[in-house]
Amino acid sequence: MKKVVILGSTGSIGKSALDVIRKFPDKFKVIGLAARSSINILEEQIKEFKPKYVAVYDNKAWNELRKKIKNIEIMHGTEGICQIATKTEADIILSAIVGAAGLLPTFEAVLAGKTIALANKESLVMAGELIKTTAKKTNAKIIPVDSEHSAIFQCINSCNKPYISKIWLTASGGPFRGMKKNEIKNVTPQEALNHPKWKMGKRITIDSATLMNKGFEVIEAHYLFDIKAEDIGVLIHPQSIVHCLVEFIDGTYIAQMSNPDMKAPIALALSIPERLTNIVKPIDWTVTSQLQFEMPDTDLFPCLNLAYEALKTGGSMPAVLNAADEIAVEAFLAGKVKFNNIYEIIKKIMDAHNVVPINSIDDVLEADSWARKMAKKEIG
Ligand code: MG
After folding, report:
1. Angle, alpha carbons 21-23-29 (nearest 5°)
2. Could you give all domains of the chain from N- to C-terminal order, each with its CATH number?
3. What pLDDT shows up at residue 80?
């Protein structure tokens, strides 16, 4: 029986993880749940899964839940979430908090030497090097949940790792693939949230529409698999059946495929080295008879280039990239800026940033808050 802690249990990934766990009560026991503020959903989850530990980030929500749930001590704030992220009895921590808010709990889990199923890609974007070196010291294990990285993880083993020449991350291309540059300016948040293939949270769906999500995934892949930026390619693949291609020096490839459903990588991250039965619908190859691939249009989606640039620059730049993007996406969702402004805002903040080396988590947080402040000022 694996004891599981879920950070971000009321979000899209958290809920899918609980769907998997619900089906396999003999394999998993939920011992901790943490959420930002959706306490109605959290209350239901507490009743069903009876965790020992609960944490709520938002102060008001925490106070409300505390009045309703009397038999468990409910911790609060970042500190409370970090506490449940480091419980010694936990076999696996699913880190699924959205955005930069997931960094500290993930880092604490790494410091505590835990096994982490990582869905919060931002922590690797912001602090990849630091997390990698810390994990080496503490023996923490990171199992990717991001579908493309889970795919690569499944294709790489110690025998073939030295012979990899390139890895290819696939991207559906989002809702605006093939659009004209003058059309994309005026797309609405509603249109951007209408992702053709994946059901995800709001921020990542907008990041998918700008291709920034794929850029973050390039950075994530670099730190997870120790592969140089120039050896990580991106391919648009509208069917979202092939999740990665690993290319070897002899000109051959290994691909990982499934119908697009986040339950597949979530279930594998929880169950590894086992696999669980009936997680996703098998592919009907007579229906899915065409797999298309094309290079991304970086003229239309320039955010992808910003991510490569941030990775090559290193230091505090990837943290700045992430923070500026979070603020710009928020502003777009609130109707304050247009779709193409997202790129312009991030680019401006990156250009204004004096890169510093990252020696501690405080250096990361400082770069993060600087970029947030600058982006907010830019948006006005
Ligand atoms: Mg992904």
Report:
1. 35
2. 2-145 (3.40.50.720), 149-313 (no CATH)
3. 97
* pLDDT > 80? residue 11: yes
* Gap from CA of 152 to ligand 1 centroid (Å): 11
Tell how far the Cα of 146 is from the centroid of ligand 1, in angstroms: 5
Ligand 1 centroid–CA 173 distance in Å is 12
Contact 110, 140 (CB under 8 A): yes
> How far is it, in rounded angstroms, from Cα 180 to Cα 171?
19
Question: What is the 117 CA–ligand 1 centroid distance (Å)?
Answer: 14
The span from the CA of 312 to the CA of 355, in Å, is: 12
What CA–CA distances, in Å, run from 318 to 46, 225, 342, 350, 357?
36, 17, 16, 9, 11
3-state SS, residue 296? coil
124 alpha carbon to ligand 1 midpoint, in Å? Answer: 13
* Helix residue spans in the chain (DSSP H): 12-23, 39-49, 59-68, 77-85, 103-111, 121-138, 147-155, 181-184, 189-192, 202-210, 212-225, 263-271, 303-313, 317-333, 339-352, 361-379
Q: Tokens 């249109």 sit at which residue?
A: 191
Band the pLDDT of 104: cuts 50, 70, 90. Answer: very high
